[in-house]
């Protein structure tokens, strides 16, 4: 029987990063993955392929709507080749997953393909695709099995017309009318992809606003921008049935007045979040306990109820984000090596990769009000930037929330071009407990989108933004 210092079940961003860090720290490491490719949801059917589709569809939209204004004239009709677009997406996925294989080899990590299940707290059975079972032993084990799309109890996912994000990334045709159930990150990103390609898109959301977990100002601005892009929204609608009839899908929902509303389309994307994936893990055999939501219970060091077993990523509490899982994977590896790492969960940024992009870190205005914290806010519009006007990306703003007395930055919320990258500046500043004045006095290159961060900091510092 092969023996290891650490075995990791699941090869998503949390699992493979944990494996690499463990190996770097001198531990004999194994990783177990049930699929034939490494990388988990993120690399195979999540973050990476959805960004590939977002970029491809963005190019198409620019070519059909914006090139002429830039003085670029393309003779003839511009067409979408969806098959080729999806093939390119798959090539990006293939390159990325092969890159993870390379990293496993480079770091001398043993990879097992199959379903890993606990025999006890130190032994894992690996059921391979050919039906054979192999057993390994590990001093420490990390559960990194991730999540899968959630649904509603009354919805039957046929994966043809009533689909999840996985199927939405490999459709054979552009929908005529895609109805998206859920106004969160996944629904909005994939809804925007197919809207750009020519589909009619209607987003049906139970809450009274989209991206409800983010600052209300971001929700309001993104709604306004996406309505301008002709995406339709049915907010405060409670879906009660989804029925397929041939090539049509009929969705019935009650609006906020309790009146029934019927939506008809040829595809329904169910994007109501994700849930922990622990099927077949047999965690009870190792003494691992779960909460009422099916998440693995861990302490502040991410240790489970079993002394040598840890859990990271989507299977435990907190935001279901790839970069959160990566930080947790690194943290556990370093704890096992006797180090004292830390994660500030308040400083894990959240991003929506629509265009304009939406990004945030720290506290929202709603959270500060609820906690009774006295704060000041500074906001700066993207349209006031020369760089934004040059690129025609004028939607959005940057908002900085700072403590009224100390000026420490408590939250940064932004929507606009390249905000997914800009948010890193805010994370860095907040990690070092910067004040709004600190950011306002840093030189930002001109002309850039990042100048909006400086200007918002100026606005939060005695309301002295320069360019509005």
TrEMBL record:
Entry keyword set: Disulfide bond, FAD, Flavoprotein, NAD, Nucleotide-binding, Oxidoreductase, Redox-active center
Disulfide bonds: 42-47
SUPFAM superfamilies: FAD/NAD(P)-binding domain, FAD/NAD-linked reductases, dimerisation (C-terminal) domain
InterPro entries (alphabetical): Class-I_Pyr_Nuc-Dis_Oxidored (IPR050151), FAD/NAD-bd_sf (IPR036188), FAD/NAD-binding_dom (IPR023753), FAD/NAD-linked_Rdtase_dimer_sf (IPR016156), Lipoamide_DH (IPR006258), Pyr_nuc-diS_OxRdtase (IPR001100), Pyr_nucl-diS_OxRdtase_dimer (IPR004099), Pyr_OxRdtase_I_AS (IPR012999)
Biological processes per GO annotation: 2-oxoglutarate metabolic process
EC primary class: oxidoreductase
Catalysed reactions, as listed in the record: N(6)-[(R)-dihydrolipoyl]-L-lysyl-[protein] + NAD(+) = N(6)-[(R)-lipoyl]-L-lysyl-[protein] + NADH + H(+)
Cofactor note: Binds 1 FAD per subunit.
Cofactor: FAD
Active site: 446 (proton acceptor)
Binding positions (FAD): 51, 116, 145-147, 314, 320-323
Protein origin, superkingdom: Bacteria
Amino acids binding NAD(+): 182-189, 205, 273
EC number: 1.8.1.4
Keyword Amino-acid biosynthesis attributed: no
Keyword Heme recorded: no
Pyridine nucleotide-disulphide oxidoreductase dimerisation domain boundaries: 348-457
FAD/NAD(P)-binding domain span: 4-329
Record GO terms (molecular function): dihydrolipoyl dehydrogenase (NADH) activity; flavin adenine dinucleotide binding
Gene Ontology CC annotation, any one: cytoplasm
PANTHER family xrefs: DIHYDROLIPOYL DEHYDROGENASE, MITOCHONDRIAL (PTHR22912:SF151), DISULFIDE OXIDOREDUCTASE (PTHR22912)
Family that this chain belongs to: Belongs to the class-I pyridine nucleotide-disulfide oxidoreductase family.
Record's protein name: Dihydrolipoyl dehydrogenase
Organism encoding this protein: Maribacter spongiicola
